[in-house]
């Protein structure tokens, strides 16, 4: 059974690897949530992002962090709510293009979401979703009331 001894041919090993990937993703998600909680608390207390939290965020998000912080600085994040109680986020990208984000599933209508997050899986989230999470943690998200139809239209345009 020479073939079975190769790691790639062992179904148990494949399952284990699969389990590890899923387990890691859950762990990373928990660490990220914890980081945003700390950011929320520290920003409320001090009005700024501490160096420790910034370094930790940078470790997780790497090159996505600075552009996301720029979006927050430029007040590019708006939460759109409608009378029916639904809400979506709109982030105006650096080139002025508006993107629709759903934070619960980390969806964004931008190309980076499709290529880097979904396809290549080398990013946890795109800069727009990260900007929404940062903006919410800092309490600087703008709010806008829109109609039920408008939110429905935005959701129906999602891919
Ligand atoms: Zn995006």
TrEMBL record:
It comes from the Eukaryota. Keywords: Metal-binding, Zinc, Zinc-finger. GO terms for molecular function: zinc ion binding. GO terms for cellular component: Shu complex. One of its GO terms (biological process) is double-strand break repair via homologous recombination. InterPro entries: Znf_SWIM (IPR007527). The keyword Phosphoprotein does not apply. Transmembrane segments: none annotated. Residues 99-137 form the SWIM-type domain. PANTHER family: ZINC FINGER SWIM DOMAIN-CONTAINING PROTEIN 7. This is SWIM-type domain-containing protein.
């Amino acid at each position: 059974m020479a073939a079975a001894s190769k790691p790639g041919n062992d179904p148990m090993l494949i399952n284990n690897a699969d389990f590890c990937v899923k387990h890691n993703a859950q762990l990373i998600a928990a660490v990220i949530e914890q980081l945003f909680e700390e950011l929320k608390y520290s920003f409320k207390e001090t009005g700024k992002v501490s160096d420790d939290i910034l370094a930790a965020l940078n470790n997780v998000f790497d090159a996505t962090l600075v552009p996301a912080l720029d979006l927050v600085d430029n007040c590019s994040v708006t939460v759109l709510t409608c009378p029916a109680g639904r809400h979506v986020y709109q982030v105006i990208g650096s080139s002025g293009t508006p993107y629709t984000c759903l934070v619960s599933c980390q969806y964004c209508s931008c190309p980076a979401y499709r290529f880097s997050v979904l396809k290549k899986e080398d990013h946890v989230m795109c800069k727009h979703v990260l900007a929404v999470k940062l903006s919410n943690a800092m309490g600087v998200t703008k709010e806008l009331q829109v109609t039920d139809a408008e939110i429905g239209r935005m959701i129906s345009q999602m891919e």
